[in-house]
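re: ur question from the group chat, yeah i did fold both. here u go
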Amino acid sequence: MRLITAVALTAIPACPALATDWSHKDWRVSVTVHETTEDRHLTCRASTGGDGDPVLALSVYSGDVGPPYSYPMAQVIERAPRGYGTAMQQNQPVDFLFDFDRGFAITATASAGFDSEGIATAETQLRPQDHLPMLQAMKQGRWVEIWAGNDMLYEASLSGFTAAYGKMMDACGFDLALPPR
């Protein structure tokens, strides 16, 4: 009986952590389980912001291909109060400026519309070739300013990002290493 228990306990660390919520400094990680009769997959998400502010988030799905072939896309998600519009407008460029190099910026395009309840929403879409440079810059920085046109939409803290990214990737079974910038 002890041998069986010892073998079972040694197998536990090999399984990805399935904690549903975890936070480190200014970032949160959530894991959602998707079960069917054939498969069990996870969606792992890391985010900061919210509570009235836009959300800077990234997510991975355990059933997808991951690094080094594909990296998660960081995006800003904005929801306006009922009856109001979003600051980000359809097809508007949205710039990400980092504290460590004001000359370095990554630009995304906004997609805006309404959800099923009639609430105005908007989110950014990065070009695929910008996914990895964005993650590398987020790992290096302390904060990122997000600009919609000439207006600063949000200043997101990157305190805790590296730990949250690692937890998110590990929970979904992906390599957490990012190549150096």
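okk and heres the other one u asked abt
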Amino acid sequence: MFNIPNILALIRLLIAPVMFWIILNPQLFTEAGWHVSWSYYFAALLFVIASATDFFDGYVARELGQITIVGKILDPLADKMLTLAAFLGLMMSGAASAWAIYIIIVRELFITGLRTLSVSEGIDVSASMTGKVKTVMQMIAIGFLLMHWPLGEALLWVAVALTVYSGVEYLIGFSKAYKGKL
């Protein structure tokens, strides 16, 4: 259970609430003499570090043959905790559209439920290329929004479109795999 990929996923789980707290409390750093932008930079740095653990935990799991049932559940959960912490923090701070975040959250919760069901039924429905592109686009949008860069909101809506599309694609893949199991 405590292999390198699972530890990396746990690190992601621990970083998520810290990043969320920083996004919602940037004034605490300004009271220490920092410009408010440094709070956003620090939140973005934590997000990048946590996102890197997402890449490495999958890579290490495949290369070292450390793919586990716990990892199949923990990895997507950690991904969701990280992205939802960022999206909710950005929404609550007024930096992201509430509707966009709502759509993303609903899709993520639904697909996380399907993934859990898949694992419990012994059905392997791996992430599609669209799902991976969706994740990258969400991460790029989060980065732009955290840094308050132009195009952040437009990138967020591109991420929403990919999120919905990949969710439909995942649902179709699950349905086919489940029917094939019967």
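fwiw on the second one: The chain has a mean pLDDT of 90. The two ends are 31 Å apart (CA to CA). idk if thats what u expected
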